[in-house]
Specification:
The complex is a heterodimer of chains A (112) and B (115).
Chain A: E1 4-5, E2 10-14, E3 19-25, E4 32-38, E5 45-51, E6 56-59, E7 62-67, E8 72-77, E9 86-93, E10 100-102, E11 106-111
Parallel strand pairs in A: 2-11
Antiparallel strand pairs in A: 1-3, 3-8, 4-5, 4-9, 6-7, 7-8, 9-10, 9-11
Chain B: E1 4-7, E2 10-13, E3 19-25, E4 32-38, E5 44-51, E6 57-58, E7 67-73, E8 76-81, E9 90-97, E10 105-106, E11 110-114
Parallel strand pairs in B: 2-11
Antiparallel strand pairs in B: 1-3, 3-8, 4-5, 4-9, 5-6, 7-8, 9-10, 9-11
Classes of the chains: A mainly beta (112), B mainly beta (115).
Chain lengths: 112, 115
């Protein structure tokens, strides 16, 4: 049972425009959410996170929004750059142990 | 900080042999380490979670006798693929976290090819 879902396997965006990547989860026990970026044949790198006590966290061009009632989070990248082209995974964690669940990933392509 | 290394980065082995992959946290003590497997164009699949000094907890469907995980110290975990077969060929990634952290820090991955 996939507790964290990314329904868009791929996304193409023009350079300079906004990229919006979405993620849905089902487990209401999740209280911390993270986004990771992954290039082919490399391990994921941490991008940004948000605690369930917040609804927005911003770091430079990256902003994560959390809607707890909808069990939905999104990652906004503004402006998008060609170097942002990668697979983005959202992940959710519950501080009841080491539960840590990844979504299926969204492949972002930023077109120059 | 929070650097995780994996060795080797790429390994080719013959069917029926065993191969060991090491995962090290270089600048922090990893109380928990995770092993993932990624198939081409697919998501990361959590294989097992290991706490230092304890037996690993395997996810459903993962053969614990085939994928031996050892987390003997706070900086080292190993994954041994025993009696490897071509279907075990994959990209294996480890990650590590320290006790007070939510974030997992990932290694660069190991590409295993079984011929």
């Amino acid at each position: 049972d996939q507790q964290v879902k990314q329904n868009s396997p791929s996304l193409s965006v023009q350079e300079g425009r906004i990229s919006i990547l979405n993620c849905d989860y089902t487990n209401s026990m999740f209280d911390y959410f993270l986004w990771y970026k992954k290039y082919p044949a490399e391990g994921p790198t941490f991008l940004i996170s948000i605690s369930s006590i917040k609804d927005k966290n911003e770091d430079g061009r990256f902003t994560v929004f959390l809607n707890k009632s909808a069990k939905h989070l999104s990652l906004h990248i503004v402006p998008s750059q060609p170097g942002d082209s990668a697979v983005y995974f959202c992940a959710a964690s519950a501080w009841t142990g080491n539960q840590f669940y990844f979504g299926t990933g969204t492949s972002l392509t930023v077109i120059p | 900080g929070a650097v995780v290394s994996q060795h080797p980065s790429w390994v080719i082995c013959k069917s029926g042999t065993s191969v060991k992959i090491e995962c090290r946290s270089l600048d922090f003590q990893a109380t928990t380490m995770f092993w993932y497997r990624q198939f081409p164009k697919q998501s990361l699949m959590l294989m097992a979670t290991s706490n230092e000094g304890s037996k690993a907890t395997y996810e459903q469907g993962v053969e614990k006798d085939k994928f031996l995980i050892n987390h003997a110290s706070l900086t080292l975990s190993t994954l041994t693929v025993t009696s490897a077969h071509p279907e075990d060929s994959s990209f294996y990634i480890c990650s590590a976290k320290y006790r007070a952290s939510y974030e997992q820090y990932f290694g660069p991955g190991t590409r295993l090819t079984v011929t």
